[in-house]
Amino acid sequence: MTKRAAYVGAPVGREDAVDKVTGASRYTHDLAFPGMLHAAIGTSPHASARIVSVDTDEAERMPGVRVVLIGETLCYQLGLYMQDKCILARRVVRYQGEPVVAVAADTLRQAEDACRAVPITYEPMDGVFDPRVAMDYGAPLVHPDLHTYAHMDGVFFPKPHSNIAHHQKVRKGDFDAAWAAAAVTLKSAFYNPPVQHVPMETHATIAQAMPNKRVELWTSSQSPYTVRHLMSVAFGLPHASVRVHVPSVGGGFGGKAGLNLEPLAYVLSKAAGGRPVKVVATREQEFNTLPSRQGLHSTIGIGAAEDGRIVAFKATYVWDAGAYADYGVNIGRAAAYSGAGPYAIDNCWIDSYVVYTNKVFGTAYRGFGHLEVLWGVERAMDQMARKLGLDPVAFRRKNLLRPGTTTITGERVTEGHGSPEQCVDAAADAIEWGTTVQPTSPGRVRGKGIAALHKAPAMPTFTSCAAVIKLDEDGAADVLISGVDYGQGTYTVLRQIAADELGIPIEKVHVTWECDTAFSPYDWQTVASRFAYMGGNAVIEAAADCLRQIRNVAAQALSADVSEIECENETAFVRGEPVRSIAYADLALGYTYRNGNSIGGPVIGHGRFIATGLTHLDPNTGQGLPAQYWTYGAQAVEIEVDTGTGEIEIVRIATAIDAGKVLNPKLCVGQVVGGVLQGLGSALWEGFSFDSNGRLLNPSFVDYKIPTAKDVPTETKQILLENPQPGGPYGARGVAEHPMISVPSAIGNALYDALGIEFDTLPLTRERVLLALRAAGTGKHKR
Amino acid sequence: MTYAIRLTVNGHVETADVPASMTLLELLRERLHLTGTKEGCGIGECGACTVLLDGKPVTSCLVLAVEVDGCTVETIEGEASDGELSTLQQAFVDGGAIQCGFCTPGMIMSARALLRRNPDPSDKEIVEAIAGNLCRCTGYEAIVAAIRTAAERQRGTGGGSHD
């Protein structure tokens, strides 16, 4: 059957938009149940300390207080990749902000007051705050029991009796020989601080411990099934006993993946005799207690031949995992197999260490390590281009992956991978690369910069997803799926796909908005820009299953062969004889003949998708196939710097991404615009500051600035290329994370172009730029 | 100790006995069950809880309930009328100015206040009006465009349908 793409590729609006503009959308924040208690969390003021004593007596007697819990009674180890975390700190605290005590009371005020009334005596211990120091022999151990922790075997390699939660190696070719033979070599070091995701809805969970060891959860999560699985593992419950509802979610960006407040809400409810308990993170806890993006120290070496070809690449990535590395280990892994950028490099040596420190811990954040790694790689590429006397675009074009080359893990690049080269060219053209414009006034200087990017979904080799489509009495279709649309727009895209595949108007397709593991079929979790790809394929298969059922019944009812039945415009008909037809509405629940006899039954289609052909990476060489697909892109920026204030103005910024197929241009552009501004946050303003004792100094919007409406660049361009992805739904790839990845590196490169000063540390604040200008001596600018 | 207050919310007269420490945000969400107004930080830094108090935009987490005795409050729930979206809401829908939607109610209330005092705002004035409303998803461009569109449509039809 030929596909008519009436909706796929069209700028269809979001189905949830009306609910969201009227305030009718229900978020976990908004839910309440009869008898519901409110919980507050008391956190550690120390980054590293022994808990000497906790006295809950007074708090327990306070008005409205139902439950006071401390870690000592909660013997559970939690984690997705690495089970290193407790529900509440036990015996020791490992970061300032770590939950130590929790209270459930009739009102939130009562719970907060009671939390403050729990005297806790700590004995401060030596902490370790720099991951490079933490790697040293003799450094204080954040997890002395690391060697006993369960973790995903054969994928992660914690080093016993150290702070190293995972060491990912990539070895390709003969680095040492190639380095020795290189005509030009370069070594550079870079740093990214930890940052926060800042979803506008802070984490929130309501749990109810039900009779017979059942659990009901309503949670602000990206991962209904992963929450269910991890709850089941942690508490020894059958999977079916844990029911997870995910209402509308107010932003995630990775921070709501995995398990967060769910176990705490559950143990509180259990202790409260099964009353529902609501836990909502305060904004300060969102910064200081819930996970952030890991910091990264990078050391990069590049060796090139005279002609500009990169012949050797070496990198050491030291990730500041913070106190727990449940998710951090996988970021260290993903960023290693992508750790040389989208370039063809025959001799490569990468060590990526995920290292515990006594700081708030890291997790997935939009781009999953790639923004951090490429801040170093793409800055170093520009430095190498200069050493070689080559234009940065020309140097990149010489080295980009193209069909016939191999990635650093040995994957052969084909036409189906998409084109990094077209992305670099498109981004460069969009800012008129090679031309110069005079600054708007004296005391200001202009610069241009470019940076490439790539990312594949970082996910287990067995990641899968299912979709169910059920037809209604009127021939409409309900799509059930357990990926979560927390703003990115995937449900709309799935709606478009289902409408086209089924041949019905989009108004009659609905994606069921609240995920519920009791009804919606399995999906791993909504991360890694994989949902449109995997969910799209599952929906295509589910629609095909529906059509198969429709055709079978229609063929029988129309006395035709199944092969003669066509499905279009909500109708099944005999090919070439459109009058012999039956409306979907008359088939949706089964077909009834005039005499009352009936055949068929309710049409319910199911479809599924599982990652194919992925392998674990060789523990010693990192060789293997980690990527279901790659999405390539490039970002180019023109800036103007005020040399009196150090302020960087983004004059224009262009993003080119090879999307494979743009399923919905409106939503896709929305992802790029939003991602670029988030990337600008990482580039110019965002970063945690700690004092010398590991205390976070900026856990609020006053001290931690995220981009506001005033920070939008004057001109943004989105260029979406469509080199189709084999196996992608309609040829599509994931694009949601990518627009933020190379914003910092492109700006860093532009800043060098403007000022002739190297910046190795993010964010590029006015203060940092101004101090560097002063250190360099005013008037020594390139122009 | 509680205080009896009386206020008008979205055209309805409401009465409540509130403790001195209760915020307007808590009054709206927990007593009046108007959960369209969101709490993003609770300390007046993010704008998610913006409502109109006697026509002026305020962060309702920083206003005490006792202060609004005798006042008029408008929330997102009052923006549509008879099931019809306001021009502003429709422009947000049409312009794709929504992703996760958590900042949207506060954003629309700030925009509502702007369009009331200035039916023909420049982009700069629009940006200024929503500078205190944080959005982490959209990158603001579509929001600014939606407010501009709403202003144009309202002027084109001789004023908004609900304004």
Instruction: Please give the share of residues in helix of chain A.
Output: 10-25%
Main beta-sheet strand count, sense and barrel state of chain B: 5 strands, mixed
- Briefly note the CATH topology name of the largest domain in chain A: Aldehyde Oxidoreductase, domain 4
Rg value of chain B: 16 Å
Largest interface: A-B, 55 and 53 residues
CATH superfamily of the largest domain in chain B: Beta-grasp domain
By CATH, the superfamily of the largest domain in chain A comes out as Aldehyde oxidase/xanthine dehydrogenase, molybdopterin binding domain
What strand order characterises the main sheet of chain B?
2-1-5-3-4
The CATH class of the largest domain in chain A:
Alpha Beta
In total, the number of strands of chain B is: 5
Proportion of strand residues of chain A? 15-25%
Sum up the overall morphology of chain B in one term.
globular
Given the structure, what is the number of helices of chain A?
17
- Which CATH top level class of the largest domain in chain B fits? Alpha Beta
CATH architectural designation of the largest domain in chain B: Roll
Q: Give the strand order of the largest sheet of chain A, numbering strands 1, 2, ... along the chain.
A: 3-5-1-12-9-10-11-20
Number of domains of chain B: 2
Portion in strands of chain B? 15-25%
The chain-level structural class of chain B is alpha+beta
State the end-to-end CA separation of chain A.
62 Å
